[in-house]
Amino acid sequence: MSTANPAGADPRTGVLTDSRPEVEQTPPRQWRVLLHNDDYTTQEFVVWLLETVFAKARAEAMAIMLHVHHAGIGVAGIYTKEVAETKVAAAERLAEQHEYPLRVSMEPEPEEGRS
Questions:
Q1: Please, is 83 exposed, middle or buried when counting C-beta atoms within 10 Å of its C-beta (0-12, 13-18, 19+)?
Q2: What CATH number does the domain containing 82 carry?
Q3: Where in the sequence is the domain holding 31, given as residue range(s)?
Q4: Which residue, 60, 69, 99, 108, has fewest beta-carbon neighbours within 10 Å?
């Protein structure tokens, strides 16, 4: 005996369910982690920091470090807010441990169509 249609019930009179409206999911806002140039933090330390904290390949770390050196500021990476906060804290902690005054900050990534 099949349990799909118990006691000969009419399958057209089953329970009606409303489908859920589709919810538009927007990705979380992204944040830029910024490195600021100074006259004391060594270029080698900045490259090491980019490789260690931000998981950059050596060539990319060198390029970012040189950009920071010449422009005064540069993007170390773009992350969700919580990840960016963690990266900023880790970079600041390592700079302090190595006695460098490296400034690390974060700012929201511009969103398209935002007023």
A1: middle
A2: 3.30.1390.10
A3: 27-108
A4: 99
- The rounded distance, in Å, linking the Cα atoms of 76 and 89 is 13
* Model pTM above 0.70: yes
pLDDT in tens, 89-104: 999 999 999 999 999 9
Asked if residue 16 is part of any domain, the answer here is no
Query: Following DSSP, what letter does each residue of 25-51 receive, concatenated?
Result: PPPPPEEEEEEE--SSS-HHHHHHHHH
Q: Is 40 among the domain residues?
A: yes
Render pLDDT for 27-78 as a digit per residue (tens, 0 to 9): 899 999 999 999 999 999 999 999 999 999 999 999 999 999 999 999 999 9
- Fill in the amino acid letter for 108: P
